[in-house]
């Protein structure tokens, strides 16, 4: 089974071809940071953003500075160790590359947005000196540490602990913290601001959506192979975990929304997070807990191809292979 202890290396016959297809699709979605043009962003930062919007961006880039590094660390330390499928490990190898690419993107973003070296250092140390970002990091580390000593998945309880780590990053870290960040980016793009950030975010969005799909597929396979694994106690734990994640994100958003930003409010942000949480829960076969609608029309109006996975649909954009010299534009 996919969560059996060990390190299966046999690719033929292929037991889990779905993961190999995910790996090939990910290869087709190749992009580089050099393709993102931040020229207009610098002008926007200096002359078009309000003070409240500038503060939002300062908090957002501070979170970005370490967010994907945390995800990459969990992938290496936990996911790659325990998902016993050579096809799935191919995908995880590609995902690790994408996490590194995201880190490069945000590194370039910070270097562009924050020219002052000391201010940049503060941004990179955000998980230590900004309480609302430390809170989100602590949430992530708690679930990473929960299986730190778990070397082999010998028992059913071991496998449940591992799945809780997997689901934490799929539903709450990549699936909620990052989707909240995307909303802030697309809010600004709806006002014609920071198009370079939005352009790069389109590609990050697609990557993250695929990472979530992969994690849910691992969960689905494990549950099919061991039907009593995902019991009622685990379901209650997932619901509580997502509620905890929502509270962490609301603490973060309160940092910059309490000062007032037209078109964004703490009330709407809470509804939006609950909307996302319901998408994650129903994907796991758990009834929606909040039953709310997306309060942000600017999310609905974004390019439907880029936002396909926001509504849990397959991204058709993955079907275009990358060969030779290819240039992407912002419209996709």
In short:
The protein has helices spanning 17-28, 39-47, 51-82, 86-113, 117-124, 126-129, 131-145, 156-190, 195-225, 232-257, 266-283, 297-300. With 332 residues, it is mainly alpha-helical.
Multimer state: single chain
Give the C-level CATH assignment.
Mainly Alpha
pLDDT < 50 runs, ≥5 residues? 303-332
Strand content: under 5%
Q: Topology of this protein?
A:
Layout: H1 17-28, H2 39-47, H3 51-82, H4 86-113, H5 117-124, H6 126-129, H7 131-145, H8 156-190, H9 195-225, H10 232-257, H11 266-283, H12 297-300
Helix pairs in contact: 1-4, 3-4, 3-7, 3-8, 3-10, 4-9, 7-8, 7-10, 8-9, 8-10, 8-11, 10-11
Structure description:
The longest helix has 35 residues. The chain is globular and about 60 Å long. By secondary structure, it is mostly helical. Helix 7 runs antiparallel to helix 10. The chain has a single domain, classed as Orthogonal Bundle (Ribonucleotide Reductase, subunit A), CATH 1.10.620.20. The protein is built from twelve helices and no strands. The termini are far apart.
Key terms:
globular; disordered C terminus; Ribonucleotide Reductase, subunit A; 0% strand; mainly alpha; 332 residues
